[in-house]
Write a structure and sequence with these properties.
Elements: H1 5-14, E1 22-24, H2 30-37, E2 45-46, H3 49-54, H4 66-79, E3 84-87, H5 96-110, E4 114-117, H6 131-148, E5 153-158, H7 167-179, E6 184-187, H8 193-202, E7 206-210, H9 218-224, E8 228-230, H10 234-251
Parallel strand pairs: 1-8, 2-3, 3-4, 4-5, 5-6, 6-7, 7-8
């Protein structure tokens, strides 16, 4: 059954369940979207801006234009019938009015039903917008969703710990973004179980985290009550590592890898 954009947005929001987290394997084009969407159990997709920029030979950190970001999102949403959340970086705008304008365009022109929005100013995790400005930008994204009639799922990123900041500020930012209209807090820097527990105790809403080698295992994140786990550009790295290993093996006249026979089609 084909879902409307409104239904996809509602579904995406409902999939963020504490203790039964939404696992989103990040994608960057039509083919990766289709391959992941066809995997058993997958119910929603998320893009990774780092991957979308890098496969075009461009850096992350709004290395592509807002027009290019919307086109990339439209290609991905057009390949699948699942809800798609788009890593929309900082909204590709210097002010809140621009965030509203661009997020509205994203919703209307691409069919996306969720976004990530960051609170750091540049490509690095620090410095960040001051809390009031960052919260206003989250509110601006919410206003865009309201204007379109689509209940956009906002995953507001808190870069404080990853940028070397302190815990209390990170929690204050998380709660300010929730009050401004965020649905989920994407809390970077939760590198161990104790930090995940503290964040779950102190943040007044659902929590999204990054998964990677050495981080808290997925099953344990579920037990603790996390609502979403994503992998950012890690899935592109995973893909490239497999390709590089295969290239080395083939160049050395090794056996044909079984995955060389993987069949696919759009």
């Amino acid at each position: 059954m084909t879902l409307t954009q409104f239904q996809k947005a509602e579904l995406l929001n409902s999939l963020h369940v504490p203790g039964t987290p939404l696992i989103v394997t990040n994608v960057w084009d039509a083919m990766t979207a289709k391959i992941v969407a066809d995997a058993p159990g997958v119910r929603a997709l998320a893009t990774a801006s780092h991957s979308i920029s890098n496969v075009r030979g461009l850096p992350d950190g709004e290395g592509i234009t807002v027009d290019e970001a919307i086109i990339a999102a439209r290609i991905i949403t057009g390949a699948v019938d699942l809800p798609v959340s788009v890593d929309f970086e900082k909204g590709y705008a210097p002010d809140a009015a621009g965030v509203t304008r661009n997020v509205r365009r994203l919703i209307e022109e691409s069919g996306a039903v969720g976004i990530n929005i960051e609170d750091s100013i540049g490509a690095a995790k620090a410095p960040q917008f001051d809390i009031e400005t960052a919260a206003a930008r989250v509110a601006a994204a919410r206003a865009a969703g309201d204007a379109t009639g689509i209940p956009l799922v906002i995953n507001a990123r808190v870069d404080t710990l990853a940028g070397g900041g302190d815990w209390d500020e990170a929690v204050a930012r998380a709660n300010a973004y929730l009050a401004a209209g965020a649905d989920v807090i994407f809390f970077l820097g939760l590198g161990d179980e104790d930090k995940v527990k503290r964040a779950l105790d102190q943040v007044n809403g659902r929590l999204s985290v990054i998964g990677k080698p050495g981080a808290v295992p997925l099953a344990r994140l579920a037990e603790l009550g996390v609502s979403r786990v994503s992998f950012g550009p890690g899935t592109l790295g995973l893909t490239l590592a497999a390709l590089q290993r295969a290239a080395a093996n083939l160049t050395a006249l090794g056996d044909y890898p079984d995955d060389l026979g993987f069949t696919f089609a759009l």
